[in-house]
Each structure stands twice: as structure tokens, then as C-alpha cells.
């Protein structure tokens, strides 16, 4: 650890937070974590990470429990909780924020920065998109299966020193980074994949990519829903080439059969990021008067399912 490196606090050190925390630890930063259910396990054993990148396991510099009082505020606060309707992410990070703390979001979905930007107008935001396959396999235990690239930029646009300095640290820790001037456009681009695939995998009971694409009519359904996302993005001012549909399908076929993060949440009985990944896209479609019948059908069906699940849990 080096005194000239920025201090890092990960709020929500699950699969993503633990992994990218390990990368920054490897780059020489002091990395602390805020945990909820896995607090005891991490205090006892640290964070254990199985990865082809080598031994990434580490003991965080401080392990806090949600609700603790911080000893100091961090240079970068990295928020990696799931984006869920019942979770006020701004209130979650408020106790840990200092005047000069930069906020980093490594979370899926569209329009997920706004609530944070409104709550902390004076703190810069670096918004990141993770292209990685990583999951929790036990309390404080993570399996990094593949990939790891981050696309990142200043929110709402541009590239500032906060993004550049953080990118350099991730690169030093061994991760490929693409800095972007248009992070919102990049969110749309990622949603081109996540918005059709993630919710459909849940509707299909936790299906992997091969099952989705190889079932009769599956690829056609994905193509139609991707076209709908493309039309909404264009109406919102983020046009993308229609070639991306073929590219996404071909790229997905090249990967080994893969269960996305929403499929894993479904299988593990956790809440799913339905609004962040699908509901916000449908809401923007409605604002612009773009018809998205397939996306809307999927959204309503999954809302019914979430409602039933909530009623069963009561
Ligand atoms: N996993 C992946 O491969 C990918 C994930 N993503 C995105 O990254 C984001 C994070 O996903 P992922 O890491 O997989 O999710 P996880 O469920 O593994 O991690 C979320 C973590 O947040 C914690 N948390 C929730 N609420 C609180 C709280 N109040 N205080 C402290 N900790 C809290 C959870 O703890 P608890 O156990 O108590 O609930 C959990 O440890 C999501 O937006 C996801 O879509 C993007 C690309 C790939
Ligand atoms: C793109 C992908 C599939 C992995 O990076 C993802 O975002 C997810 O699992 O939700």
C-alpha cells in the first residue's frame, strides 16, 4: 500500500465490488469495504477470490458494517450494490461521503446515475460498465470466471482526471479499461445486450445464453427485442448501428453457455434489477412514443412474477 495512492471504499462488496477492490488493492491502494450479510465472514477470513488472474484474495484495510460510523472518508467511493426499487442508493452512501469523495458506480442499467448526481451535486461521478463473469460462491468468496474489462467515463459526459486516474489504477492492477467521452451512450450499447437477454433468461427460468439462442424462435425473439432497444436509444439521442444486432448474436454464440447476473439472482432467490435494466428503457420509450410491445410484455410479466414472489414472502 502506498501513501500517494487514493483510498478506496467499496459499498456493497459482492461479486463485482470484491473483484474490482482486489484489482485496486493489487495496484497499491488502501481498500476498505462496507458489508451487510457477509460482514462476519470477511472479518474472519478476508475476501477469497478464485481467478485465472492469480491469487487475488485480500484482507480489506477496514471492514465496516452497513450503519457503522466511518473513521475517515475515502478518495473514491465505489458503489456496487444491485440497483433495486426498494434501495435508496444515495442514502446508503451518504454516511461515507466526504466533500472531496469521487463517486464511482459499477452497476448495470440505464439512467442509474441520476439519483446519485441529484443527491451529491458537488461530488464528481465516474460511471462504469463491467464486462465480466464473476459471482459469489459463499460468504466472502467469489469466483471470477472470465473477462473483466471496464468501460468508464465522467457522468454525464466527458473524461476528467478523476476518471483518468482511476483508469490508470485499474490498468496497473491488470484490468483492461476503455475510457469514453459518452458514458450514457455506452450504457445504451450495453443495454442492447442486457435488456433483451437478462430478463428473458429469468422468464425462461434461469436459462443460459445457448438455451436462449438455440431454442426455436429464441434468436428471433432476441433480435426483435434488440431492435426495440435500438429504436428507443435512437429516439433518446443515442443512435447505434443496426449491425450491432448481428455482432451481439455472433459474439454471444462464441462464448461458452453463460448465465447472466440477473439469471443468477433469479436462481439464488434474490431480487432482480428489473427496472434498471428493462423498466427504465420502457419508460423512456413511452416518453418518446416508441412502441416496444415485446419489451413491455416481458416487463409486465416479470412484474407479475415479482409481485407474486413478494406476496409469497410475506
Ligand atoms: N456479477 C457479474 O458478473 C456482473 C454484474 N454486473 C452488475 O454489477 C452490479 C453488482 O452486481 P454483483 O456484484 O454481481 O451483485 P452481488 O449481489 O454479488 O453484490 C451486491 C452486494 O451488495 C451488498 N449490499 C446490498 N445492500 C447493502 C447494504 N445496505 N450495505 C452493504 N452492502 C449491501 C450485498 O450484500 P448482501 O449479501 O447483504 O445482500 C452484496 O454483497 C449489479 O448492478 C450487476 O448488474 C455487471 C456485469 C457483470
Ligand atoms: C454482460 C454481462 C452478461 C456480463 O458482463 C452482464 O452484464 C451481466 O451478467 O449482467
Explain this structure.
Belongs to the ketopantoate reductase family. InterPro entries: 6-PGluconate_DH-like_C_sf, 6PGD_dom2, ApbA, KPA_reductase, KPR-Related, KPR_N, NAD(P)-bd_dom_sf. It is an enzyme of class 1 (oxidoreductase). The chain is of the alpha/beta class and 314 residues long. The chain folds into 2 domains: 8-181, Rossmann fold (3-Layer(aba) Sandwich), CATH 3.40.50.720; 185-313, N-(1-d-carboxylethyl)-l-norvaline Dehydrogenase, domain 2. 45% of the residues lie in helices and 18% in strands. It is built from 12 helices and 9 strands. The protein has helices at residues 15-26, 39-45, 89-93, 114-119, 161-172, 183-203, 209-214, 218-235, 243-254, 261-267, 274-288, 293-313, and strands at 8-11, 31-35, 48-50, 63-65, 76-79, 102-106, 125-138, 141-155, 177-179. Strands 1, 2, 3, 4, 5, 6, 7, 8 and 9 form a 9-stranded mixed β-sheet that branches. Strand 7 and strand 8 (141-155) form a beta hairpin. Helix 6 (183-203) runs antiparallel to helix 8 and helix 8 packs across helix 11 (274-288). It is globular and about 55 Å long. It starts with 7 loop residues before the first strand and ends with a helix. Bound molecules: NADPH dihydro-nicotinamide-adenine-dinucleotide phosphate and ketopantoate (KPL). Ketopantoate (KPL) binds at residues 108, 130-133, 193-194, 198, 260-262. Ketopantoate is lined by residues 108, 130-133, 193-194, 198, 260-262.
Amino acid at each position: 500500500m502506498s501513501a500517494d495512492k487514493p483510498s478506496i471504499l467499496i459499498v456493497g462488496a459482492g461479486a463485482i465490488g470484491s473483484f474490482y477492490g482486489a484489482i485496486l488493492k493489487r495496484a497499491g491502494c488502501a481498500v476498505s469495504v462496507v458489508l451487510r450479510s457477509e460482514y462476519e465472514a470477511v472479518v474472519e477470513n478476508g475476501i477469497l477470490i478464485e481467478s485465472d488472474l492469480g491469487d487475488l484474495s485480500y484482507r480489506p484495510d477496514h471492514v465496516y458494517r452497513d450503519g457503522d460510523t466511518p473513521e475517515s472518508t475515502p478518495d473514491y467511493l465505489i458503489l456496487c450494490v444491485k440497483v433495486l426499487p426498494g434501495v435508496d442508493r444515495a442514502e446508503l452512501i451518504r454516511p461515507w461521503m466526504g466533500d472531496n469523495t469521487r463517486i464511482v458506480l459499477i452497476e448495470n442499467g440505464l439512467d442509474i446515475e441520476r439519483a446519485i448526481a441529484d443527491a451529491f451535486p458537488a461530488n464528481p461521478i465516474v460511471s462504469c460498465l463491467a464486462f465480466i463473469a464473476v459471482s459469489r460462491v459463499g460468504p466472502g468468496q467469489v469466483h471470477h470466471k472470465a473477462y473483466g474489462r471496464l468501460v468508464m467515463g465522467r457522468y454525464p459526459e466527458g473524461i476528467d482526471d478523476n476518471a483518468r486516474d482511476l483508469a490508470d489504477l485499474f490498468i496497473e492492477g491488470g484490468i483492461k479499461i476503455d475510457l469514453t467521452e459518452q458514458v450514457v451512450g455506452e450504457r445504451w450499447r450495453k443495454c442492447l445486450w442486457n435488456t433483451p437477454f437478462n430478463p428473458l433468461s429469468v422468464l425462461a427460468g434461469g436459462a443460459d445464453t445457448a438455451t436462449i439462442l438455440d431454442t426455436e424462435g429464441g434468436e428471433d425473439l432476441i433480435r426483435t427485442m434488440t431492435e426495440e432497444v435500438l429504436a428507443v436509444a435512437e429516439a433518446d439521442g443515442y443512435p447505434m448501428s443496426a449491425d450491432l444486432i448481428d455482432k451481439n448474436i455472433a459474439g454471444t454464440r462464441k462464448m461458452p453457455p453463460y448465465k447472466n447476473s440477473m439469471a443468477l439472482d433469479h436462481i439464488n432467490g434474490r431480487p432482480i434489477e428489473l427496472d434498471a435494466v428493462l423498466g427504465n428503457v420502457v419508460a423512456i420509450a413511452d416518453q418518446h412514443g416508441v412502441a416496444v410491445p415485446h419489451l413491455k410484455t416481458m416487463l409486465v410479466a416479470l412484474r407479475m412474477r415479482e409481485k407474486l414472489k413478494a406476496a409469497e414472502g410475506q
